[in-house]
Amino acid sequence: MIKISLTVVIAGLGEMGSIHYKNLGKLKKKYNIRILTTRSINNLKSIVSNKKVDACIFALPYHLHYRCVLTALENGVHVFVEKPISTTYEKAKELVTLAEKKKLILMVGHILRFSQTFNIVKKLVSGNKIGRLTMINCRRLSQKIVKNWWKNQNRFLLLYEGIHTIDIIIYLLQKLPQYIVCHMNYLHPSIKGESEFMVTMGFDSEIVATLHHNMRSSYSVNDIYISGTRGEILVEDFSKVYLNGNLLYKSTFNEMMKDSSFKEMNTFIDAVLHDGSVKSSGKDVLPSMKVVDMCYFSAQKKRILYWRGFENG
Do 245 and 263 belong together in one domain? Predict the structure, then answer.
């Protein structure tokens, strides 16, 4: 049944929360949306228990996601939550199961899935434009200014940033890795969790993907290089696509964020109003959360993990 109006609560008004607020404002031209905001989650239960609330958008520090999403779902409210959905696979799976049981939408903010950049890359890959894929090399090096809530997180850079890269690789390949090996450095003086990691994922068809992220680098690098038997694709800053050295698509990181975040929020609101489906549902991103758990386990145990063995406990 199509609802005449929609009441949406945004919890968290930092960078991403502010973006979602602006996008909802734009969507008012298309939908009848009432927007409520809260900077505190202490009164979240009383807010969502109000039957006039249809959906919640959570743009909070990720260690708060599980409790907030659980509260909203238990009170029959649809949810959009920024990535990662939770801090562990098991908690994420619990939320997905609850959303399915209550027939509620649970959408996760994996924004790259909505970008023109990776729509183009996905078409190139699926269209066999560079032949059979062989290797994917991802680098994201930067010098980050530490936020206060980062400091005491046991799991940090992989969960905060690396999950974007992991998710987009799985999305592009439509395959799960057969094995994973991960190494982490805990060298940043201001945070408890890892500040650098390197992950190798082996897929069937002999595809190998490597990820190297560092938040304390002197260099500023953000690229994904995909090689195949008949060519190569290069993605720079999530906003430029090259095919065999030729520029196919050019935007900027800010424009990518602006365009993709609007498409993302439009998808969520449209799904809530029309009982539809979403591209980055909680269920869709569970494999990425499983990979994250495997990475931390691999780094801790200093060994290769195989998907089947990890899946079976």
Answer: no
Q: Read off the pTM.
A: 0.93
Q: Is the peptide bond before 61 cis (omega within 30 degrees of 0)?
A: no
Q: Give 294-297's long-range contacts (Cβ < 8 A, gap of 24+).
A: 294/180, 294/182, 295/158, 295/162, 295/180, 295/182, 295/197, 295/199, 296/155, 296/158, 296/182, 296/184
Q: What is the pLDDT of residues 30-46, one digit of tens each?
A: 888 999 988 777 778 88
Q: Are 60 and 11 in contact (CB under 8 A)?
A: yes
Q: Say yes or no: 101 and 117 in one domain.
A: no
User: What residues does 35 pair with on adjacent strands?
Assistant: 8
**Co-location of 304 and 171 in the same domain:** yes
Q: Are 193 and 303 in a shared domain?
A: yes
Q: How many Cα atoms within 13 Å fall on the side-chain side of residue 100?
A: 10
> Is residue 284, in this structure, part of any structural domain at all?
no
Question: CA nearest 197: which of 153, 169, 160, 224?
Answer: 160
Give the rounded percent of residues in the chain with a pLDDT score beyond 90. 85
SS3 at position 212: strand
285 domain-assigned: no
Answer yes or no: is 283 within a domain: no
Residue 15: give the domain boundaries.
Answer: 6-112+259-278
200 and 144, same structural domain?
yes
- 161 and 301 together in one domain: yes
Q: Which residue has the tokens 């780094």?
A: 299
Mean pLDDT of the chain: 93
pLDDT, tens only, 247-298 = 999 999 999 999 999 999 999 999 999 878 898 999 999 999 999 999 999 9
Block residue for tokens 């993302």: 264
Q: Provide the pLDDT for residue 237.
A: 97
pLDDT of residue 311: 58
